[in-house]
Design brief:
Strands 3-2-5-6 form a four-stranded antiparallel sheet, with no helix packed on it. A four-stranded antiparallel sheet has the order 10-9-12-13, with no helix packed on it. The chain folds into two domains: 87 residues, Immunoglobulin-like (Sandwich); 80 residues, Carboxypeptidase-like, regulatory domain (Immunoglobulin-like, Sandwich). The longest helix has 33 residues. The protein is elongated, with a radius of gyration of 27 Å. By secondary structure, the protein is mainly beta.
Length: 230
Amino acid sequence: MRGARERLSGYLSWGVLLCGCLLWACATTQVGSRQYGPPPVPEGKGRLFLEAGGINELNFYIVDQGTGEEVYADMPRVSASSPSAFETGSQVSRLVTDLDPGTYKVVVNTDIKDNVVVEDVQIQLGEETHVMIPVGRFQVMFTSTGELSVQMPFLIMDFHMRSVLGKGMTSSELRHFIVPEGSYKIRMEHSPTGFDQIRPVDVRFGRITPVRIGTQATDGPSSQGEVQQP
């Protein structure tokens, strides 16, 4: 009888220890999970999130509309027209910042001369504000005898081809041009085919539009860029 009581006492002790370990593990998991979420909004501030359709980095600055003062800026991107520009796909989101309550203007620099401007952004005390930035991405790939190693310059023009909005260079590396939503024309000058090649490109929020230009005879000027999800 005494032995049975001792065994029962031992079982109860192990049970209490096991419950304590489970409770500790649960508490540790809850604390650890909170580390992966955004921290609380600081006291006296509001939080601004820029929604860019899968784009994690933008060159942008924020202006207080009441005073005209620039209160925040982040310029992590190298221009896509630069030879050193390429993307690894590992960029973390940098499109969030904490601001004093007030009314602001967000200015986003793109890879052409046209910026994206969003005015009258209201930041409330202790609240999160999400603002959509109407931009999209495209990539130009030039193929020659089945290879993607040829680098060729091109112009980014408005759809009616009345003005040049920017310049670029084809690349075999991952290189996305960020531009305002809209329709454009890509003009490849001095092409190996002996004539200028022109492609339309339709840029939409949350999408990546690849534009393929090649030297093959079957790749005529009427070819259209395809639309892919990021």
